C-alpha cells in the first residue's frame, strides 16, 4: 500500500455551503409563512409578510434547484476523487499519494485531485467522474459530453492538468527539487465512454497504476523524501 | 465521415446504452447500439438516390432484449451450433448451455453490454466474457470495430484474446432486405456466392461432416439467382431447414479478405458485396422470423423470409469435426476476423 497524505477536500466545504443554501431556501419562506399564519390567527394578518413569503418561496425554488445541481456535481466529483485515491493507494509502499493538495506560487493557485510521488517522479492525477459519451480533441478548449438528457460541454481536463503541471513544476523548482512531472487524467466512472485519444487519459484503475509505474526509476530515496516534504508542507505563498 | 452518439435506453439490468450513428459523405448512415453491438439501421441510397433502411430491427432497446431472432446482433462465443452443447479441448470436456434443442446456438455475446468509443473514424466497442460464460473456458476480451468508408463499405472487424485455451467463432447476424426493412420478403432478391461447396446439414442443421458440391443442387449460387427460385423444389436439405440455413464453403485461401457474395435487388437497384476473411458463410433466409413475437420497426410482426443473413463464420459444429478449419484460441494468440458489406447501385 502506498503512503497516503490526505489533505482537506475544498469541494466538500463548497458542497456543505450549497446544502446550507438549500436549507435556507426552504427555511426562510417557511418562517415567513409561519409568521403570517400566526398574524392571521391573531386576526392581525401582515400582508407585507405574505408577499415576502411568496417572493422568497419563488426565488428559493429557483435557488434550491441551482444549489441542488451544484451540490450533485460536487458530490459526483468528490466520489470520483475518492475512487481515484482508492485506486492509487494500492500502489506499492514506495509511493506517496497526496490527495487534494493546494499549491500557490507567484500569485497562481492549483487545486489538485491527487499527486503521486515515487522513485520514477511525480504524477498529477486529475480525476473526472463524468458519464456518457465524451468526444473532442486534445487541443480543444471544450469537449462534448452526451448523456441521457442531451449533449453539453465540459472543459478539456488535459488543458487543466497542463496548467496544474506548470504550477507544480514551479513549486518543485522553488524547493530545489528536479524531477519530471507527468500529467494524467483519470475517468473514474465505468459509464464514461471516452473517445478522446491521448496517452494521458486513463479509464481503468489498472491502466492508471500501470502507467504510473511504467516510467524508469531515477530518483534516490532522499530525493523522493525531499519532494514529499516540498509537496506536503508547502506554505501559502501568494 | 462523422460519428455521433445519443442515449438509447437502459437495459433491464440497469446498464446505460448509447447509440452511435456513422455517416459518410454520400449520406449513407449506419446506427449501432452498445447492447450486443447491434446494427439497428443501415440507410443506403437506392438507384433513385432515396435512402432505404436495408436491415431488419426493432423499435426500442426493450424489444432487442426480448427478441429471439438475433436481429443485427454480434454473435459469439461460438456463432452457429455446437452439437450436443459440448466440446472437448485438450482432453477436457466442456458442457455448454443447450439453448437450441440439445445443441448450443450462438452464445451470449449478442446480449452483452459493450462500451463504445470513437477512435478516429471508427466506432470501437469493447466487452468481456468471463471464464465459464455459457460454459466456455477462459476470460475473453472482445473488441468490435465498425467503420463506414466513403465508398459505402461497412467494415466489421473483430478481435479477441483469452487467458485460457478456448474456442471462438464470431459473426454478425444482420438481416438484410435490399428493398427496405418493411418491404415484404426477399425471395426475389438475387444472390451470388463464391462457394462451390457446402457443408451438408442434418435435421438440426448441424453439419454431418460431408462437404458436398453445390453444382446441380438448389445450393448452387455460383451464378446469380433469386434467393427463392429453388426454395420450394422439395430438396431434402431445404425442407429440413424450412429454407436456407446452410454453411457455404467459400472458394478462397484462408485468412485473405476476399469477395464472398453479391446480393442485389431488381426493385431498389441496391447491390451489396460481401468480403470476408472467414472460411465460410451461413446463408439464412429468415425461415423462423415469424416466430419471433416482437414487432419490427414498423410495429408489425416480422414475416417469414423478410430478410436474409450472410453470417461469415468458421464452420458450425467444428469441435465435432476436427477436419474443419480450427476454431481454437490459445492465450498467446489474437483472434482477428474482418467482414465488409459494401453497397452500390445498379
UniProtKB/TrEMBL annotation, chain A:
It comes from the Bacteria. Keywords: Membrane, Transmembrane, Transmembrane helix. The chain crosses the membrane at residues 49-67. Residues 76-191 form the NERD domain. The keyword Transmembrane applies. PROSITE patterns: NERD. This is Nuclease-related domain-containing protein. It comes from Ruthenibacterium intestinale.
Amino acid at each position: 500500500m502506498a503512503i497516503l497524505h490526505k489533505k482537506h477536500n475544498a469541494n466538500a466545504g463548497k458542497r456543505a455551503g450549497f446544502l446550507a443554501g438549500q436549507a435556507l431556501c426552504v427555511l426562510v419562506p417557511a418562517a415567513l409563512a409561519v409568521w403570517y399564519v400566526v398574524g392571521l390567527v391573531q386576526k392581525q394578518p401582515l400582508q407585507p409578510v405574505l408577499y415576502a413569503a411568496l417572493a422568497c418561496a419563488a426565488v428559493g425554488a429557483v435557488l434550491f434547484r441551482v444549489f441542488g445541481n451544484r451540490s450533485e456535481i460536487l458530490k459526483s466529483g468528490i466520489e470520483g476523487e475518492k475512487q481515484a485515491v482508492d485506486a492509487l493507494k494500492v500502489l506499492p509502499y514506495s509511493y506517496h499519494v497526496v490527495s487534494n493538495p493546494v499549491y500557490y506560487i507567484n500569485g497562481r493557485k492549483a487545486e489538485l485531485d491527487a499527486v503521486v510521488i515515487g522513485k520514477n517522479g511525480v504524477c498529477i492525477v486529475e480525476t473526472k467522474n463524468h458519464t456518457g459519451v465524451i468526444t473532442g480533441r486534445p487541443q480543444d478548449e471544450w469537449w462534448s459530453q452526451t448523456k441521457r438528457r442531451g449533449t453539453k460541454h465540459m472543459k478539456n481536463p488535459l488543458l487543466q492538468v497542463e496548467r496544474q503541471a506548470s504550477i507544480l513544476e514551479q513549486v518543485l523548482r522553488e524547493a530545489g527539487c528536479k524531477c519530471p512531472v507527468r500529467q494524467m487524467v483519470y475517468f473514474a466512472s465505468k459509464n464514461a465512454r471516452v473517445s478522446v485519444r491521448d496517452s494521458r487519459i486513463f479509464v481503468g484503475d489498472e491502466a492508471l497504476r500501470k502507467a504510473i509505474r511504467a516510467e524508469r526509476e531515477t530518483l534516490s530515496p532522499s530525493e523522493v523524501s525531499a519532494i514529499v516534504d516540498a509537496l506536503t508542507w508547502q506554505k501559502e505563498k501568494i | 465521415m462523422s460519428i455521433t452518439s445519443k442515449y438509447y435506453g437502459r437495459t433491464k439490468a440497469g446498464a446505460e446504452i448509447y447509440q452511435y450513428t456513422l455517416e459518410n459523405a454520400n449520406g449513407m448512415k449506419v446506427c449501432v447500439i452498445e447492447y450486443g453491438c447491434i446494427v439497428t439501421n443501415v440507410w443506403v441510397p437506392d438507384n433513385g438516390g432515396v435512402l432505404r433502411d436495408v436491415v431488419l430491427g426493432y423499435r426500442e432497446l426493450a424489444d432487442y432484449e426480448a427478441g429471439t431472432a438475433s436481429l443485427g446482433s454480434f454473435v459469439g462465443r461460438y456463432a452457429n451450433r455446437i452439437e450436443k452443447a459440448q466440446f472437448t479441448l485438450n482432453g477436457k470436456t466442456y458442457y455448454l448451455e443447450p439453448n437450441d434443442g440439445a445443441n448450443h446456438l450462438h452464445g451470449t455475446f449478442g446480449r452483452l453490454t459493450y462500451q463504445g468509443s470513437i477512435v478516429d473514424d471508427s466506432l470501437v466497442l469493447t466487452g468481456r466474457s468471463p471464464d465459464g460464460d455459457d460454459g466456455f473456458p477462459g476470460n475473453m476480451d472482445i473488441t468490435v470495430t465498425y467503420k463506414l468508408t466513403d465508398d459505402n463499405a461497412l467494415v466489421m472487424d473483430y478481435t479477441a484474446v483469452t487467458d485460457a485455451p478456448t474456442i471462438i467463432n464470431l459473426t454478425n447476424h444482420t438481416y438484410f432486405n435490399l428493398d427496405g426493412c418493411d418491404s415484404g420478403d426477399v425471395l426475389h432478391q438475387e444472390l451470388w456466392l463464391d462457394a462451390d461447396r457446402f457443408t451438408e446439414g442434418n435435421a438440426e442443421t448441424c453439419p454431418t461432416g460431408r462437404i458436398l458440391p453445390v453444382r446441380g443442387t438448389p445450393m448452387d449460387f455460383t451464378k446469380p439467382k433469386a434467393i427463392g427460385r429453388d426454395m420450394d423444389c422439395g430438396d431434402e436439405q431445404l425442407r429440413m431447414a424450412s429454407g436456407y440455413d446452410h454453411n457455404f464453403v467459400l472458394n478462397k485461401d484462408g485468412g485473405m479478405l476476399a469477395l464472398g457474395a453479391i446480393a442485389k435487388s431488381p426493385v431498389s437497384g441496391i447491390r451489396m458485396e460481401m468480403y470476408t476473411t472467414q472460411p465460410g458463410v451461413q446463408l439464412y433466409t429468415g425461415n423462423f422470423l415469424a416466430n419471433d413475437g416482437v414487432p419490427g420497426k414498423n410495429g408489425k410482426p416480422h414475416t417469414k423470409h423478410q430478410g436474409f443473413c450472410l453470417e461469415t463464420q468458421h464452420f458450425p459444429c467444428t469441435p465435432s469435426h476436427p477436419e474443419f478449419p480450427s476454431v481454437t484460441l490459445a492465450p498467446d494468440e489474437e483472434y482477428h476476423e474482418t467482414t465488409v458489406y459494401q453497397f452500390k447501385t445498379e
